[in-house]
Amino acid sequence: MGGYEDQLRSILDQPQVWKDLRLVRKLGLPQACIAAGYVRNKVWDHLHGYLDATPLHDVDVIYYDLADTDEERDWQLDVRLEEHDPGRGWQVRNQARMHEFSGNAPYTSVEDAMSYWPETATAVGIRLNEQDQMEILCPYGLDDLFAMQVRQSPRYRNTVAYRQRVFEKEWLDNWPLLMMS
């Protein structure tokens, strides 16, 4: 995975990304990372040679805290991030309770929760460690992301929902080099 990890770090080496990572780290949330479309879109934009970023609907921040699974906490964190960096659509979600919405067994970590997401290329997150180095979480690796392969995650059981999601998000229109399996 080393080669793709280096490429990902290079693509994400942008002032806004570092600002976002530092802001999320300041929250002090266990296992916190920025994930999903935030990472995926930047890679696909880069691989398509786009100079302008594809607009994000939100910035997904995930963390794992069994000690406090109150949904109200997440909403408060959304507001807190919005106060520091408005207009970004911050969406903070504790993965320790997200299994309740999908009918899965309780997740054991952020990375375990990501392994249940619909697509392998979306199951990628980034965070800063104590040494200000970017860490990459990717339960399915980075091959599909960089191959522009849209593939259903093995642990995501609803194929109809997966396909509908891809088409509703218009990924194949936004990034015509994508291949769907």
UniProtKB/TrEMBL annotation:
InterPro entries: NTP_transf_6 (IPR009267). Pfam families: NTP_transf_6. PANTHER family: BLL1166 PROTEIN. This is Nucleotidyltransferase family protein. It comes from Paenibacillus lacisoli.
